[in-house]
């Protein structure tokens, strides 16, 4: 399966923190919001097989929810179009049916795919989270995802956010609405990978 963040190296950082989660005792849970072609869900399901469940949230369509952006012609509203129209990526591999079949063929029943726009109650049936990755490009989507997970991330759990550095509207949301008193920010710089890494206090 395709992992878009292999194009910028963020995949390696994501897996680094996925491995750190193996330190937690008992069953671990993770949520990837904005899972696109499913490569990250596949990788985490393999890494956590027998230890945890990874939830992949996406529209699973060639329909980036640009209607949620303040400006429907802005970069954040149309940024996925580039991938949808590249021959090596396309649209067919976005479908939930395709991704479920791929995961099932590998016996990865610890990967759960959830279709639709993320909202504040998207994680109401997940009691705790050890790892969360938010990569939805649009401030409203990031806000909804953050509200869905912030009170479910365990002490010492990780919240990774993509595109804070390069999409101004997402950075503005982050600076205004993510309560820094809840988190310790990674001392490492992941600017080249467009990642911000937080650890729950």
Overview of the molecule:
- The chain is of the alpha/beta class and 201 residues long.
- The protein has a single domain, classed as Rossmann fold (3-Layer(aba) Sandwich).
- 29% of the residues lie in helices and 21% in strands.
- It is built from seven helices and seven strands; from the N terminus they run αβαβαααββαβαββ.
- The protein has helices at residues 10-20, 39-47, 75-78, 81-84, 96-105, 139-149, 168-177, and strands spanning 28-33, 52-58, 111-115, 129-134, 153-162, 183-185, 195-200.
- The protein has a seven-stranded mixed β-sheet with strand order 3-2-1-4-5-7-6, sandwiched between helices.
- Strand 1 (28-33), helix 2 and strand 2 (52-58) form a beta-alpha-beta unit.
- Helix 1 runs parallel beside helix 2 and helix 6 (139-149) runs parallel beside helix 7.
- The mean pLDDT is 90.
- Number of separate domains: 1
CATH architecture: 3-Layer(aba) Sandwich
Estimate percent helicity. Answer: 25-40%
Q: What's the helix count?
A: 7
Q: In percent terms, what proportion of residues is strand?
A: 15-25%
The SSE order reads: HEHEHHHEEHEHEE
Can you list the strand order of the major beta sheet? 3-2-1-4-5-7-6
Label the overall shape: globular
Biggest β-sheet description: 7 strands, mixed
Number of strands: 7
């Amino acid at each position: 399966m395709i992992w878009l963040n292999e194009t910028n190296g963020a995949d390696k950082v994501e897996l680094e923190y996925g491995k750190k989660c193996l330190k937690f005792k008992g069953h671990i849970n993770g949520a990837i919001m904005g899972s696109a072609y499913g490569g990250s869900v596949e990788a985490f399901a393999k890494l956590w097989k027998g230890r945890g469940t990874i939830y992949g949230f996406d529209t699973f369509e060639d329909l980036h929810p640009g209607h949620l952006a303040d400006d429907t012609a802005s970069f954040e509203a149309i940024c996925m179009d580039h991938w949808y129209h590249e021959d090596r990526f396309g649209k067919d591999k976005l479908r939930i049916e395709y991704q479920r079949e791929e995961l099932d063929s590998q016996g990865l029943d610890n990967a759960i795919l959830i279709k639709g726009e993320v909202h504040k109650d998207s994680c109401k049936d997940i009691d705790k989270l050890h790892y969360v990755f938010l990569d939805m490009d649009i401030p409203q989507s990031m806000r909804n995802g953050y509200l869905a997970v912030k009170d479910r991330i365990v002490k010492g759990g990780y919240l990774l956010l993509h595109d804070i550095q390069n999409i101004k509207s997402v950075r503005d949301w982050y600076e205004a609405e993510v309560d820094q008193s809840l988190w310790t920010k990674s001392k490492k710089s992941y600017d080249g990978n467009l990642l911000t890494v937080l650890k729950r206090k």
